[in-house]
Write the structure tokens for this entry.
Amino acid sequence: MSTQLQINGRRVRVDSVAETPLLWVLRDELGMTGTKYGCGVGLCGACTVHVGNDPARACITPVGALARQQVRTIEGLGQDRIGRALQAAWIANDVPQCGYCQCGQLMSAAVLLRTTPMPSDKDITETMAGNICRCGTYDRIRAAIHEAARALSV
């Protein structure tokens, strides 16, 4: 089956069955390896992408459900002001340790800043709760989100 998708502002055609998880289409068919496989059941957040303006777990999102939807992956995060601010703050705060979860962390943080420009610690904790970091960089993630929010407010 052939499906046309909008990924990071580009139209792409994929030849996967409708039930194939977006994660495998991104990684195996399109060679976009930034989106990571973590748990495979949508609980860890490593595979977070944006579908429209919402976060979605690519490991459980069937590609057939994405026709006419805008999909943004970590490879496209820097296409807007929020993504660039987050990337800069992540670097400035030396957030990644092993780095495996960071793509999903950044994607969730971008949705947070899009909906809540000056988030409180509680906002950050609630939004980021679905993203697990086995290295425990939560304090640096929080600091980076606050820094990006400040940078975006000027």
About this structure: Helices lie at 22-29, 81-92, 102-115, 121-128, 138-153. The longest strand covers residues 3-7. Residues 86 and 148 are 5 Å apart (CA to CA). The mean pLDDT is 96.
